[in-house]
Amino acid sequence: MLRLDKIIWNEYKTKSYPPRINEPSEAMDDPEQIRSYVAAYEWGGPSSALQLHHLRNLSRMIKPGDTILDLACGPGPLLLELAVLYPECHFIGADLSPNMLQHLEEEARARGLSNVSILCEDIRTLPSLSETKVDLIITTSALHHVPTEDGLRQVFHRMATLLREGGGFYIFDFGLLKSPKTREILVNEVARLAQPITVQDYDVSLQAAYPIPTVVSLAEQELPKPFTTEVCSIADIFYFIRTGVRSEPSARALAYIDKRWKDLSLTLKGEHIMLRTLRKTI
User: Fold this and answer.
1) What is the structure's pLDDT at 62?
2) Is the pLDDT of residue 2 over 90?
3) Which of 55, 63, 69, 100 counts the highest number of beta carbons within 10 A?
4) Does residue 1 carry a pLDDT above 90?
5) CB burial class (10 A; 0-12, 13-18, 19+) of residue 13?
6) For 214, left (φ over 0), alpha (ψ -120 to 50), or beta?
């Protein structure tokens, strides 16, 4: 389990943010990295608690017949889960990595999904969607790949132009930590379940994260309101920026979420509970 006392103390002692260090590349194309990334999102892996949390939240945001855009979707671990649960919705996975999208396309085909399409484009512009409106935009664990604050502003602006009236959005990512000791604690926690290459990628991602105040400021300037911002209550570990409830969870989604919860290990259940409780609205 995470040493919350050490995290709180480390972040309290460190008064300023370090310079963020960009990811080596905006797109992950290395086959070994992709395989490791996919494994991290398998149920029982290090991302299970977070994945379940996303499913809970999104079960109240998806309506039948929605068109849903997943920005920087990677190999689509969340998109694929949702596409199975909501066969009446259309899902678009957008990413810069052809190899990531190839995995998504192959996996969708293997699962017999006909409601998934892919788009290999820059999420700051998405030119192929110039005449398209969507009902819900998702982006999870991805915005730290955008190399500049201006680029992040462009993403938020493009989201605003894509949303249909009454649509919503759901954003999650890591925040930039102040203390390298806190980063070490989080990386070591992931290392219990993840492959070494994913552990290294996670460490790099934490250093590429944006300070949460920066993200929130840009969101307030560019995204349609109202929306809610929730952050970890003990340190800048994560943030959620999302619009409100749009629907009641379907019976299919509730049954699946309950099954996945029951299948989690005690440790992962503890992480899931922390995600749901150690947060505050700002």
Assistant:
1) 98
2) no
3) 69
4) no
5) exposed
6) alpha
Dist CA 206 CA 175 (whole Å): 7
Is there a contact between 136 and 70 (Cβ–Cβ < 8 Å)?
no
Q: Which residues pair with 173 in a beta bridge?
A: 239
Q: What is the pLDDT of residues 194-245, one digit of tens each?
A: 999 999 999 999 999 999 999 999 999 999 999 999 999 999 999 999 999 9
Mind listing the pLDDT tens digit for each residue in 27-58?
Answer: 888 888 899 999 999 999 999 999 999 999 99
Q: How does DSSP assign 230-271, residue by residue?
A: EEESSSSSEEEEE----SPPPHHHHHHHHHHHHHS-HHHHHH
**Cα angle vertex 136, ends 222, 177, to 5°?**
55
pLDDT category at 108 given cuts 50, 70, 90 is very high
For residue 35, what is the enclosing H or E element?
helix 31-40
Q: Which two tokens stand for residue 189?
A: 């926690």
- Which tokens is 25 given? 């590349």
Q: Let me know: does 177 contact 237? Beta carbons within 8 Å.
A: yes
**At 1, is the secondary structure helix, strand, or coil?**
coil
The first and second tokens of residue 114, run together, are: 């006909």
Q: Where are the alpha helices (DSSP H) in 145-234?
A: 149-162, 180-191, 196-208, 212-222
CATH number for the segment(s) 4-281? 3.40.50.150
- Where along the chain do its domains lie? 4-281
SS3 content of the chain, % helix, strand, coil (to 5): 50, 20, 35
Tell me 42's DSSP state.
S
Q: What pairs with residue 117 in β-bridges?
A: 92
Q: Which residue has the tokens 């999420």?
A: 123
